[in-house]
Amino acid sequence: QVQLVESGGGLVQPGGSLRLSCAASVDTMRRYRMGWFRQAPGKEREFVASRDVYGSPQYTESVKGRFTISRDDEKNQVYLQQNALKPEDTAIYYCSAAPRGTDDWSYWGQGTQVTVSW
Questions:
Q1: Which residue of 39, 58, 61, 66 lies most exposed, with the fewest beta carbons within 10 A?
Q2: Which long-range contacts (CB under 8 A, 24 or more apart) does 104-109 make?
Q3: Which residues contact 33 (CB under 8 A, 6 or more apart)?
Q4: What is the rounded average pLDDT of the residues 46-64?
Q5: How far apart are alpha carbons 96 and 54 in whole angstroms?
Q6: How far, in Å, CA of 59 to CA of 41, rounded?
Q7: For residues 85 and 12, is the Cβ–Cβ distance under 8 A?
Q8: In terms of DSSP bridges, do strands 112-116 and 10-12 run parallel, antiparallel, or are they unpaired?
Q9: Mean pLDDT value across residues 82-107
Q10: CA angle in degrees (0–180, nearest 5) for 79-111-75
Q11: C-beta neighbour count of 108 within 10 angstroms
Q12: What pLDDT band is residue 1 in, cutting at 50, 70 and 90?
């Protein structure tokens, strides 16, 4: 069983930055591919970024060059650095975990709200 708790969301002006964190309660995060998803009002949940134990990170096209996913397997933490935020980035952001090497996103956090607005 994996429990995930996100933090770091908030209200930020367009062009600003936020750093989201996700704490994983698990014996070792090295068994899991970690990812971030988001859901905007009236829209379906969508993939944002992921990072497996090995290999390069993956990003949805709209955040490439602005968001960076990283993981600290010693601390069981995953981060999403968000720069140059846009109003269309406004959403609830969810941390998720899948068995290493798969897309079986079985575990989810409760989400953290990110609002980009003047």
A1: 61
A2: 105/35, 105/37, 106/2, 107/1, 107/2, 107/3, 107/4, 107/32, 108/4, 109/4, 109/5, 109/6, 109/22
A3: 50, 51, 52, 53, 97, 98, 99, 100, 101, 102
A4: 97
A5: 17
A6: 21
A7: yes
A8: parallel
A9: 97
A10: 35
A11: 16
A12: confident
Q: Which pair of tokens denotes residue 83?
A: 């720069």
Cβ atoms of residues 46 and 60 within 8 Å: yes
Write the pLDDT tens digit of every residue in 72-81.
999 999 999 9
pLDDT in tens, 14-31: 999 999 999 999 888 999
